[in-house]
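[job 4471] stage=fold_predict status=RUNNING
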Amino acid sequence: MSEQGGLGSIGVGATDAAGARGMIEETRARTNNAFNVNVFVHGRAIADPITEAAWLDWLAPVFTEFEAEPPTALQTIYKSFADDPDMLAMLLALAPPVVSFHFGLPSSDIITLLRDRGIVLMATATSLDEARAIESAGIDAVVAQGIEAGGHRGAFDPVAPDDALGTVALTRLLVLKTKLPVIAAGGIMDGAGIAAVLDLGAVAAQLGTAFIACLESAADEGYRAALRGPGAYHTSLTSLISGRPARALANRFTGLAAAIGNCQPPDYPIAYNAGKALHAAAKAKGEYGFGAHWAGQGAPLVREMSAADLVQVLRTELQNCRSAD
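[job 4471] inference complete, writing structure tokens
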């Protein structure tokens, strides 16, 4: 991505400071161009042994189907950037060109430290209120994440009412109601989509799902097969996999929502501990339908090629749209 003039992004929310350091150093060895490091700034997980035990009991029959036992207890497997001084120290030492925040914002002190190292800062907003908080915090740019977007919804408070604004409405709202450069995200899969959000006033578009099928993607064959299948036409927001709303391809895991009743998943990322264990058990038996197959509503428009080729195709499509105008 970066070598072709885009802003490649690496997500380090699921690793520790040492793992993130390795990813950043490997990226720097491959490109002299700018890239983004994305961190998760979620609230501290609240352990609830009763809820967690009930969740494991509810999932137990599915584990049994694959001749496996659910975990005896669940752990908080990911640390929030807000509570991770080692991750902060590593970012300050390596000073990647761009750092972006998802799920919220770190403290003003952390933001100041990162800015003082010359790091460009971005943050995800799903509403105008979140965007205004991002603007007040001194962040350089806002990512307008529409409801169409794949993966975890970036809402600051996952239990607060969600207006579920689409990419078009949210992008235009933030362009007109804030002074921040706006990067549109959600359901954008081709050059025509990029042209559309640029016409709305965005300075750039962020694409994720469009690159899942690329040759360099770490998506396994089960994920790729699901992306090519009928589930791509029926993505849904679900909290079952991780404990926090995220848009995924329709699969056996998302299908469990029909039978959930009054049972509720534990807090994020505690629920993810169970979700990952279930996926591993099913995958060992050749069933890929319990993977975290994150994808946006534009999933059926995915194309299989190298990331470099896709960037070139997107650029050509965008230029063609501009020429048509």
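[job 4471] summary: The radius of gyration is 20 Å.
[job 4471] exit 0
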